[in-house]
Queue: 2 jobs
Job 1
Amino acid sequence: MDGVKRKTSFLKHIAELISQNKTLVTENEKLIRQNEQLLQEIEKYKQQLDKSNISKKQINTDRIPKILKYKVSTVLYAEAQGFSEIQDDMDTNALVDNLDEIFLQLNTVIAKYEIKNLKTIGDTIMCVGGIPKKNITNPLEVVLAAVEMQYYIMDIQRSYSDSKIWKLRIGIHTGPLVATVTGRKKLNYEVKGDTVNLAARIRSFCEDGKIIISATTYEIVKDLFNCEYFGKLPVKYKGDIQLYMVKGIKPDFSLQHKGLIPNKQYSIRFGLIQFMDLQELILDKLEKELPKSLYYHNVKHTVDVVTQVELIGLGEGVSDEELLILKTAALFHDTGHTIGYDNHEYNSTLIAREILPDYYYTQSQIEQICNLIMATKLPPNPKDKLEEIICDADLDYLGRSDMIPVSNTLFMELKEQDKIGDINEWNKLQIKFISGHQYFTYTARNLREVNKQMQIDRIASLIDE
């Protein structure tokens, strides 16, 4: 009997264990499913977090400002005057619309030039030349824009019968400034420094309908713009600042001598000044992209040819436009070496055609520049005075005292290109070439021709028979 009870008790215990085990298995399966769901949720949140972190990085990058420094920039403040002349019987809505129309047109004028319009607050526009693209011509562009602004204000006022109240005060100063740049797709510029503050002070000191510039700006623009002394502006810690009033473009550089619209001669003078920016761009390109094996056709050679075309050109009495075209052709004549050694003259014309339109060269000028580049191809066969000048400049070294060391760099370069044999062969070719060469221009013959026989004798002494 006791044995039956024990057996029954044992069976019940086994049944309970089986039941508990089933429950545990069920719970375990439930927990596994829950765990899988949690892992999926964790992965989902992890992906969202990664995206969020990327977004935060992007946002943080966007918010980190870039600080840019500019050595020469020109700040213009233009302030509309006329609110004090508004009378009770005037249509104020029409006046506001009139002012909006004026500011819209002023912004259109700014957009024509290399000028950055930074802000328009109420009745004041502030813009800067020389940012974000650095250039040496920014004072000229800003002052030219100011002349056009004032001309527009005077012109549009003639069409208003009852509301001729708006006038413009413009203050301009050139100097260094610091720009804080923010944003990613659209860059926002905030400028600060003494140059900005002084331009604002000059605007306040200005009279209605006038353009007042600082002495710094005046020194850069005085050759092209008609300016007269205006007065002194006392500035704390700086003393008195000399101010000048711009009356317009000088007659020789404006259409119909009215001082309002620049003529071709203005564009040429502007181009000669802008050439410094173009030269910096091209020399930097050559420095970075020319093969190191070019011992002769390097940056130094380009600088030499630019210098010589100017020297010979002035000696030959060329015009300002011809001088600009000569210097530009000399600057570009070896840029084709950045593409390849052979046919570099033609490749140079391709580079010139790509870059020069951005620097306001006309199509006619570009064609002339390309023809001059092609004229430097050996043997020289110039067809006009300008081609004679650039051919003489390109081979100027033949009559210089450093002819032999310069010639040796050309030998090393040709040797590297497998285009020449030994130094003896090279020296014999040099004697043959120099003996048959002649300078085309009177100026080059006077400067270099006298030394050529001496060069021949020196090279002959180096030849091993």
Note: The beta strands are 66-81, 115-121, 124-129, 167-182, 188-192, 211-214, 225-235, 239-249.
Job 2
Amino acid sequence: MSVLKIKRPKRDLFLLAGILWSIGGFMVLKLGLTSWKQYNNVLINSSIVIIFIFFYQFIFSRLVKKHEKRILNHPQETMYWYQFFDAKSYIIMFTMMSLGIVLRHFQLMKISFYSYFYTGLGFALFLCGLKFLWLSIKHKGVN
């Protein structure tokens, strides 16, 4: 049986999304905190809060709600394991990861940028990963 043909209960999709988002968020947060130690000041810390609020409130939390609704409303009781995201979300994820890799590899931004941007972004991503994990508990009775 092909790995792509493995179906799981909807609850497992929330669990998988939560694990992946939490790991990804932790890794981005770790990169940000590494440079934050060098650039810890009021302006950087204020920027972290602004970046966090923007990504958490206006992007990632909305994506969590969108995927919760999409998964719960899926007509079948089980779904392919990779359907925790839709195609658009995979494209966004790929684009964000690629852009981050290119920025770091070619040193297109100052290190101070990573201290606030990655810290705020990573924390927002990590918390939304925890929201997905919570959904796997909340919807434990859902197949």
Note: Residues 8-76+83-138 form one domain.
